[in-house]
TrEMBL record:
Lineage: Bacteria, Bacillati, Bacillota, Clostridia, Lachnospirales
Organism: Anaerobutyricum hallii
Superkingdom of source: Bacteria
Keyword entries, A-Z: Decarboxylase, Lyase, Pyruvate, Zymogen
EC number(s) given by UniProt: 4.1.1.65
InterPro entries: PS_Dcarbxylase
The protein's name: Phosphatidylserine decarboxylase
Length: 277
């Protein structure tokens, strides 16, 4: 039995889980990982996760969090700029689910409602019949992310919560995405309707750092980054706006996540779309 299985699948483990998923421990860990004292963790982390250092900018790194949120070198994540193509906003493991009656039912995972995810029944109605795209980032992934498309963006809406891990062992036991701290913005696009792009924190993620508030989103421009821990980005798309790649839909139906990289095409706009309200 792993540590996470003990925490989520046993009575004594769940007793210990509450303080471990609380914001206080995350803040304490965050302060340490921001300090130069944490730099000794970098080399074993690189080795354990087989990170290719030549892909990244590694100058001026003084702490573990500096390294964890490192920038990738120019050209390593080309962004598809075709306006009819829907791109991935990050590196990660992608699952796509149809939103039925406000609810997402992942295979072998806990279901959750879009209204509880957004904390808004009115806004959730916009996405009934649409798609919920879940990008799960592991610690070895690149932890900066971009805007999924260009358009007018709202302010950032922050929803406080706990910080469960986003690994499958927790997803099966806890409605993680509706309990964890998260932040989202709405992007009014020309080809894909109004997209909700959300960042979800996870165990020991002290901060979700978004660069901009209300204004203009630009496809491929860096939106922000996560600091230490596994994390998740969720993209909600209205009905009749996009055709997701068939291989992704088939894999999701079999509960298989698809590895994707930031800027990669994961679908295309439908020619016949409903009028954007």
């Amino acid at each position: 039995m792993t540590i996470l299985e003990f925490l989520y699948n046993t009575v004594p483990g769940r007793f210990l889980l509450k303080p471990l998923t609380g914001p206080r421990l995350s803040r304490i860990c965050g302060h340490f990982l921001d300090s130069e004292l944490s730099s000794f963790l970098i080399k074993p982390f690189v080795k354990q996760n087989a990170i290719q250092l030549s892909d990244y900018e590694t100058t001026d790194i003084k702490s573990f969090n500096d390294f964890f949120s490192r920038k990738i070198k120019q050209g390593k994540r080309p962004i598809d700029m075709e306006e009819n193509h829907l791109i991935a906003p990050c590196d990660g493991l992608l699952s796509v689910w149809k939103i039925k009656e406000n609810t997402v039912f992942p295979v072998k995972q806990s279901h959750y409602t879009i209204s509880s995810l957004l904390h808004s029944k009115k806004l959730a109605q916009r996405y009934h019949g649409g798609y919920c795209l879940v990008y799960r980032l592991c610690v070895n992934h690149y932890h900066r992310y971009c805007y999924v498309d260009s358009g007018q963006k709202s302010r950032n809406f922050f929803i406080p919560g706990r910080l469960h891990t986003v690994r499958p062992v927790a997803l099966r036991e806890v409605p993680v995405f509706t309990e964890n701290s998260r932040e989202y913005t709405l992007i009014r696009t020309e080809k894909f309707g109004t997209i909700a792009q959300m960042e979800v924190g996870a165990m020991l993620v002290g901060r979700i750092v978004n660069h901009e508030e209300k204004g203009n989103a630009i496809r491929g421009k860096e939106k922000g980054y996560f600091q230490y821990g596994g994390s998740t980005i969720i993209v909600l798309i209205e009905p009749e706006q996009v055709q997701v790649r068939e291989d992704i839909l088939q894999s999701s139906a079999l509960a298989k996540e698809v590895p994707v990289k930031m800027g990669e095409v994961i679908g295309h706009a439908l020619e016949h779309k409903r009028t954007i309200q």
